[in-house]
Amino acid sequence: MEFNQPAGDNMFDDSKVVGKPTHRIDGPLKVSGQAPYAYERHDVAEGQLVGYPVVSTIAQGRITNMDTDAALNAPGVIDIVTALETGEMPMPSDMNAAPLFGGAEVAHYHQAIGVVVAETLEQARAAAALIKVDYEETKGSYDLEAAWQEMREDRSDPVSRVGDFESAFEAAEVTLDQEYRTPSQSHAMMEPHATIAQWQDGKLTIWTSNQMIEWNRQALATTLEIDPDDVRVDSPYIGGGFGSKLFLRAEAVLAALGARKAGRPVKVMLPRPMVMNNTTHRASTIQRIRIGAQADGKITAIAHEAISHTFPGGAGENAVDQTRRFYAGDNRLIVKHLAEMHLPEANAMRAPGEAAGLMALEIAMDEMAEKLGMDPVEFRAINDTQVDPEDPDKPFSDRHFVECLNRGAEAFGWGDRNTTPGQRRDGNWLIGHGIAGAYRGGPAMDSGARVRLQPGGTLIVETDMTDIGTGSYTIIAQTAAETMGLPLDAVEVRLGDSDYPVSAGSGGQWGAASATAGTYAACLALRGEIAKKIGTNDPESLTFENASVRTGEKQMTLASFAADGEIVAEDTMEFGDFRGEEVVSTFAAHFVEVGVHVGTGEIRLRRMLAACDAGRILNPITARSQVIGGMVMGVGAAMMEDLAIDKGRGFFATHDLASYEVPVHMDIPEQEVIFLDTLDPQSSPLKAKGVGELGLCGVAAAIANAVYNATGVRVRDYPVTLDKYLDQLPAA
Amino acid sequence: MRQFSFERASDAAQAAARAAEVEGAKFIAGGTNLLDLMKLEIETPVHLIDVNGLGLDEISATEDGGLRIGALVRNTDLAAHETVRRDYGVLSRALLAGASGQLRNKATTAGNLLQRTRCPYFYDTAQPCNKREPGSGCGALSEGAFSRQLGVVGTSDSCIATHPSDMAVAMRALDATVETITPVGMTRQIPLAEFHQLPGDTPEQENALMPGEIITAVTLPAPVGGTHAYHKVRDRASYAFALVSVALIRQPDGSGRVALGGVAPKPWRSDEADAELPNGARAVMSRLLDGARPTEENAFKITLAERTLAAMLAEE
Ligand SMILES: Cc1cc2nc3c(=O)[nH]c(=O)nc-3n(C[C@H](O)[C@H](O)[C@H](O)COP(=O)(O)OP(=O)(O)OC[C@H]3O[C@@H](n4cnc5c(N)ncnc54)[C@H](O)[C@@H]3O)c2cc1C
Ligand code: SF4
Prior knowledge:
By secondary structure, chain A is of the alpha+beta class.
C-alpha cells in the first residue's frame, strides 16, 4: 500500500486504543527476567561455545605475525580464527566505514583481529591473552584542533549558501561570532554487542542484538560472501542501541567465523572496554557560528561551519544540518568539514548531527538574545519560520515550535527567573535557568508486516521491526488492535526476525511512525481478506469493533472467519515522494533549572521540562519514557560524557563505564514532559512522527545556558565540567 | 583471568605464612577490586587465600578509648556503626561517599586500603604503565595522553596515579594505624601515614606490607572531637571517584586537620598544613600542595582543593 497523499480523517482520529496511555506489553517479561537477550539465548542452539575477541593494540599499521600456539594449547580451546588467515573480507555495506575483520591492515585501535573459541568464557579470555601479535606501526594524527586551524577559512565547497551571508553579517546591527566544541561520545547502551551464531547445512542463523534486521542480514551475507537467503537474523529484545547497533558489527562476524571453523554454535559478546574503540561513536566537533540580527531581533544572517573527525571514507558528525532549517534569516551559509583520522569509526548516535549541532547553536542563540537584550524565548519565537528558509516555497508540514516555547515557558515559570547572570543564590548554590530549542527531522521508511488471524480470535503480528527499549511492541499492538477492532490483549506481536516482512527498523526516530503504518497496511489487507469471505469487495462498508465484524444488520465474531484455519495477510506501507514536498520535522523546547556550588563548581540539576511537538503521540507513556530518557542522555552530554582521545596513540582512553561517566539517578531531578496536541497528516496515516531523538536534542545547551545564568561564566566547550569555570566563580 | 587455586583460611597467622610460602598467592576479601583486576589480567595471582572466614569482622573499643576495626568489617557496617557515626563522623561520611550500596556491602576495611589506582592506562594492558609492568613507561605522562583524573602532588616522573580510596582519607585525618601479622607470626603496627608509599622509581611498590603480611585491623585513637566533614567533588553526583575530596576535622578554636583525596598516591596530609588552618584555605593549601606538579589537564585540582576547603570552612 502506498502512502501517497496526506492522511484524511480516519479511524485514528476517533481512536480507542492508539494514543491511550498504555504500559508496555513486554514490561512484565522484562522485569521478571523472562525476555531473553542475545547472549542469554541458551536454548536456541545446543552445544554453544564461547568466542572471545582479540583486538589490535595499535591505532594504525600492519600485523606482521600472530603467534597462536600457546593459545591453541590452552585448556578448553577449540579453535582460533585470525585476521591473517581469513585475509581481507568484503566491506559489509556502504554504511560501514571501517573494516570489521580480516587482513593484515590495522585501521584503528581495538579493531578485531581474531577470535578464540573455547568451552567457557574464562578459557577463551585467558587463551586470547596468550596470543602474541607483532605489528609494524604507522603514526597517525589525531588532533582535531590542528585540522580545524587548517580548514577553518575554507568555504570553497559549502553545504549551502543562500543570499549573501558575508555582506549581511557585516551590515547587521548586532552580531555574534563564536566557536563551540563537543567531545566524542559513546552510546553506552546497557547491553553490549552480542551474537550467537550457528551454521546448519551451509545456512547461518544469528541470534543477536540489532536495530536493523534486514541491513544486517544483507551485510553479513556480503562480508561472508554467501547468499542473503542463507542468513537468518533474530533479535527480539535489544538492551539499547542508540545507533550503535544499526550496522553489522564485529562480534557477529567473529561469531559466524568462529562457529564455521569450530563446527558448533559460538557466542561472542564485546566486553565493555572494547565497545568504545571497537565499535562506533559520535565524533567530536568544533563549530563556528555567526549570527547577525537587526535590533528588533530578526536574524538577517546566519552561518554554521563545523569540522568533525571521521574514519577515512566516513561521514563524521553532521553538526550543521539543523541550522539549514531551524530559524529564519535571508542570508545563510553552511559549511561542513571532515578531518580523516584513524580513530575508531564515527557513525550515527542518537540524533546524529542535531545532538551535537544544537549543543552549539542553542548556546549561540542564548548569547545572541543576551546581546540583543531580549528574552531568549522571545528571540527564538521571533525567528520562527513556517517555510524552509533555504527554499521558501517549501512549507513545514506541521510546525508548532512557538507553541512549544510558550507552553513550556508558562508551565516552567520562566517569567520568574532572574535575568542577570550570577545574581540568584540559595545558600551555597548559585541558581540559574536555561532554555534551548530542539529540532529533529521526522523521517519515515517503508515498513512491512504480516498479520495472522488465529482460529481462537487472537491476532499475531509479525514484522522484522525491532524494539530497542522504545515501546515498539506496544504501539504496534495498539495499532493492530485499533485497526481490527480487537482488545489489546488479543494481539500478539512478534518482532526482530528476518523471516518476517522487512520493516523500517529502529533508527533516526523513524521507527514509530513507519512501523505502525506498516502494521496498519497489513491489517487493512486482512480486512480485505475478511471482506472477500463475506462476499464484498468493499471492506470500507464493514465495521470492525468489539472483536466482531458488522455489515448492515449482520454481526460475526472476528474469530469465526478463522474457524477453519488462520487467515494470513501481508503488506508494506510505502511512503510516496509527496512526503518530501514539505519539511516533516519535530520540535521541542527544553527548560532547566540548575544549582552551581559557589565554592566547588559542582552542578546539580533542580528540574527539567520539555514541551514537544511531534504529531500524534501514539502512547503517552512510552513516548514520555523516550523523551525523559533522551533528557537524561542530554544531561550526560552537558555535564560529563567525554570519550577522551589520547592524541599520541590514537584511541579513546576513557573506554569503560568507570572513566566514561554517564548520569546516575542522583544527577536526574524532576522531569516534566508536555506533548502538544498536534497531528501531521503529511507524515503517516496515523499522523505521527517520532520522539526518540527529539528528547535529546537541545537538552545539553539548555543546561549550559542555565549554568551561564547561574554563574555568569559562559562555557562553550562540552562537557561543562567545573574545571572550565571554577577559577571564574565568585569567592565563596 | 588466569587459572588459580583457592583455599579458605581460618587463622590469620597461618594465612600469612601460607601467602608467603606459595609464590604468586594473594588474599581475597570482598573481591570487588581484585576480581575485576584478575579478569583484565592486571593481577594474575596463581593462588587465592580467602580471608572471609578469619572472624576479623568486629568493631571494638580499645583500652585507650579508641576503636579497633577488624580487617573484614564491611564498609556498610563501618559507616553505620554507632560509635563511628558519633565520634568519627568524617569516616562514616567518607565511606558513604564511596562506590555504591551494593559494593559497600562487600567491600572490606583492608581491601579498601589496598584497592589499586583507577588510572586508565593502568587498566588497559596494551598501554605502557610502570605500576603494572615496571619499566614499560608511564602511559599517562606520554605525549597527548589523558591525565585529567590523575595526581598532582607526591607523584614522580615514573607515575602520577592517585590512590582512589575515600575511607583512607578520613582514616588519615583520624591518625589511624594499620595492624598486621607478618608471615613469621609477628604483629606490626603501621601508622597509616607510613602505610602507602610514594611512587618514586618503584610505583609498583605501593605500601609497607612485606610479602604475605596480612592486615588484621585498623585502629583509631580516642576521638578528637570537633566538627567532622567530608566533601567529595566529582563530575556526577554519585558513584564516581573523587576529582578532589577533603576530609576536615575542625575544633571550636579554629585549629584542626585536613586530608585530601584524589590528588596524590596516598591520602594527603601534613602537620605544617594543619597548623595553617586558622589562617584559611589558601594558607593550608599552599603548604599542603607545595611542590605540586600537575599536568595541563589536572592543574584545576589545585584550585579545586582550595575552593572546596574554603567552602567547607565557610559553611560552619
Ligand atoms: C564500580 C566501583 C566503584 C567504586 N567506587 C569507589 C569510591 O568511590 N571510593 C572508594 O573509596 N572506593 C571505591 N571503590 C573501590 C572499593 O572501595 C574497593 O573495591 C573495596 O573497598 C575493596 O575491598 P574488597 O574487600 O572487595 O577487596 P578485595 O578486592 O578482596 O581485595 C583488594 C586487595 O586487598 C588485598 N586484601 C584484602 N584483604 C586483605 C587483608 N586482610 N590483608 C592483606 N591484604 C588484603 C587483596 O589481596 C587485594 O589485593 C569502587 C569499586 C568499584 C568496583
Ligand atoms: S600514572 Fe602510574 S598507573 Fe598510570 S600509567 Fe603512569 S605508571 Fe601507570
